[in-house]
Amino acid sequence: MIPFVFALVEEGDDITVYWAVDDKPKERPDIQRLANIEANPTVEFVVDHYDEDWTKLWWIRVRGTAAVTQDPGERRRAIEALRLRYGAYARSPLRGTVVRIHVTDLTAWSARDAAQHSTRS
Fold this sequence. Notes:
By secondary structure, the protein is α+β, with helices and mostly antiparallel strands. It has helices at about 30-40, 70-85, 85-90, and strands at about 5-10, 15-20, 40-50, 60-70, 100-110, 115-120.
């Protein structure tokens, strides 16, 4: 499991998730996640919410195709979305690689609904 921060951008029916290699110290700039995406761009991640009150539990599983963003305009939009979501990024130059995940499937569950829902396929 690799935790990461991201911004979700919706344009019409398209959902894109962006994340960036930030300026925090790393052993090397070509982190393993980037090599993994190059070898196999199919990705999946889960966002969940835990609460002591189990009726408030929920999770969302996202599947998609990842790629390093090469387009300068898309990179700017991604960084803007990340800065809007995370205050620390507003004060950071974010010079690292930006990754785009084109979402192909979302599956969600909540204890309140007690059902699993697939919203895309």
